[in-house]
Structures are given as C-alpha cells and as structure tokens.
C-alpha cells in the first residue's frame, strides 16, 4: 500500500471514495512482486487542469491533454490515473511486464480490477488511447457536470 495513493483517494468524488479504497486494496493484493500501484492523479482542480493544458501550447513541452479546465472527469473527482512504482522507487508506465510472474502483466491486473467495478479504461479508447486513465462517469456528460448540481449517487 502506498500512503500517497491512500491520501489521493480522499480527493475523489464522495460517491467514489469507498469504492476506490476497495479497488486499491484489490490491486495491492493482486500485485505480489516488485511493482506496486500508485494513483498519480485523482481530483485535478481547474487551475491544475489549465496548467496542464498550457503545456505544448503556451508553455514548453509536448501536448499532454486536450481538456481545458472543467472538460476532464478529473475536475469532478471521477477519474484516476495510475502508474507502477518498481522496487519502491522508480515510476513506470510499463503495460507489458509481469513483475510478479503470475502470467498477467501487472498493469493489466490493475485494469482488470477497475473494470470489475464498472470503470471505463482509457486504454480502450480508439482515438487518443490513454492507458493510465480510468473514469466512472455515472452516465453524466461533461456538459451536465459543468452546469453543476448533478446528483451522482
Ligand atoms: Zn486521467
């Protein structure tokens, strides 16, 4: 278990905090080798989203997102990004390595747990696949969420 991840889970939408605790516990149980899972982003504030949108546009670097503030499910605490931490120190986005030698790549073990809870995986998207990203939208569009006062659960 990773303290940083447990703290980040608390920033999720209130409807998802408990479920993310279960998801994270199941992922931790599934990964038995050199890798653990870390949630790198859960809630992203509008200011953080704008700073990200600026990268590759008005700030140096390659474009990392097409979402402006309010346009990402992260802005509502309904999305999670993950990475793996190898040997307790190196962040990795390796989707193929089976670090715990149980026949399934560790990354895909995490994907399997999220999907079992009904989360959508960005790695399945045909346009702009986003393998570290998971979201649970409760059927709400970004437009609805932007208007506010949306009952999620
Ligand atoms: Zn994301």
SSE topology sketch:
Layout (H helix, E strand, L loop, with lengths): L2 H7 L7 H14 L4 E7 L4 H9 L24 E8 L3 E3 L13 H11 L3 E2 L11 E3 L6 H6 L6
Antiparallel strand pairs: 1-2, 2-3, 2-5, 4-5
This protein binds zinc ion.
The site of zinc ion has 5 residues, from strand 2.
Distance between the termini: 27 Å
Give the radius of gyration. 16 Å
Mean pLDDT: 95
- Helix % is 25-40%
What structural class results from the helix and strand content?
alpha+beta
Low-confidence segments, ≥5 residues, pLDDT <50?
A: none
User: Can you list the ligands bound to this structure?
Assistant: zinc ion
Principal-axes geometry comes out as globular
Continuous helix count: 5
Tell me the number of strands: 5
Characterize the main sheet: 5 strands, antiparallel
Strand content: 15-25%
What is the succession of H and E elements? HHEHEEHEEH
